[in-house]
Amino acid sequence: MTSKLHWVAFILAALTFSIAFSLQPDQHKVLLISFDGFRWDYLYRVPTPHFHYVMKYGVHVKQVTNIFITKTYPNHYTLVTGLFAENHGIVANDMFDPILNKSFSLDHMNIYDSEFWEGATPIWITNQKAGHTSGAAMWPGTDVKIHQSFPSHYMLYNESVSFEERVAKIIEWFTSEEPINLGLLYWEEPDDMGHRLGPDSPLMGPVISDIDKKLGYLIQMLKKAKLWNTLNIIITSDHGMTQCSEERVIELDQYLDKDHYILIDQSPVAAILPKEGKFDEVYEALAHAHPNLTVYKKEEIPERWHYKYNNRVQPIIAVADEGWYILQNKSDGLMLGNHGYDNALAEMHPIFLAHGPAFRKNFTKEAMNSTDLYPLICHLLNITAMPHNGSLGHVQDLLSSTAPRAIPHTQSTTLLHGGVKPRENEQEESYAYFIGVSLGSIVVIVFFIVFIKHLIRSQIPALSDMQAEIAQPLLQA
Ligand SMILES: [Zn+2]
After folding, report:
1. Ligand 1 mean position to 260 CA, how many Å?
2. Measured distance CA(429)–CA(409) in Å, rounded
3. In this structure, are residues 171 and 149 in contact, taking their beta carbons and an 8 Å threshold?
4. Beta-carbon contacts of residue 155 (< 8 Å; ≥ 6 apart)
5. CATH of the domain at 326
6. CA of 228 to the centre of ligand 1 (A)
7. pLDDT at residue 108, rounded to an integer
8. Distance, CA 38 to ligand 1 centroid (Å)?
9. In terms of residue numbers, what domain contains 277?
């Protein structure tokens, strides 16, 4: 009877050990994927079986509020820092910094100027400082030297590198002798085609189908590499897309003298730098110029955009209504789809799906903020988050019951704008988790020693009747 109890206890102890030491490390690996410009409702435009497969065996968030302005670089930097644009400093794809006296533009090499990026520390650097390795396949900013660092592995940006080649690199890094625990994968579509065709075009159907096939390819390759069930995979995007038209154009030349201002960024948020002594003239001329254009002095920019407290935000910004296009002159030409509008608009929202050992299965959540992703990833990687504008508490219901849970946040003041959560929270929850695992392990080890001693004692009287070769291993134990 006692012997049976011993065996039950032994099996329980072994199970506890295996859960504590073999399942948990898997929960600390993350692959973050961005399909640029994948609007939240593209999932339902055409059959997307691979996206739905991830939803069925993972989690899905219907509405993700991204950050203003809803452009590529600002939002990608938010996903990896958890900060609003005014705090991380990448306030647009095209910027001018009056302190640095430098410009930043997607079309130029000056995006490699470190100074534009160093208002924040992206997650790959924090991950590496914690002793881990990161790998990035063309994620915006990952080939820029930031705070003297690059990701441990990265690819120089080159849009002609295929999706398949990027996937191969990610898999190589996750399966190498010194595997990465954080991978970042970026793909330019469906943004590019969304701009050219406009999201309402029936030709967008095949574009979305193609992205679904690419996701299918990624899943297939991860399964082949035995990574599918061990990695936490997060599939998201930076922004959505809305339909534009030649009938909805606001032409600045109709209202402003070209010699009175510099147009830093154009549409749908025009960033206007008036020339010296011309501020009032430019502002007055534009303020009531067009019913679909809202013009703000910098200090009047709504708080909810978390946008005005940065030097790179120009003295006047003019924001177009959804679907309206700002051009300096009609001859400049427009794209049939665009984004950058108010982040409260559903059409600007991206997708969010996740799958892996840390996530629940077949779980749908109504809403989250894109700033919440950063503390979630830090939690999964078990690293201490830098100060950020998100909240792990807002998204911890996405985590499965076996995943480490976070303790509730406490409010704290900070120098950053927009209610930043203190980094101590993330630190505490990692400590709580590890203290839990350590205490659990100590209890199991102590129990194990007592059990073995007990077993040996109970076996000793019987040993004389046993053959020596059976008794020997027991005595050695
Ligand atoms: Zn775009």
Report:
1. 29
2. 10
3. no
4. 136, 137, 138, 143, 161, 166, 169
5. 3.30.1360.180
6. 30
7. 82
8. 10
9. 249-338
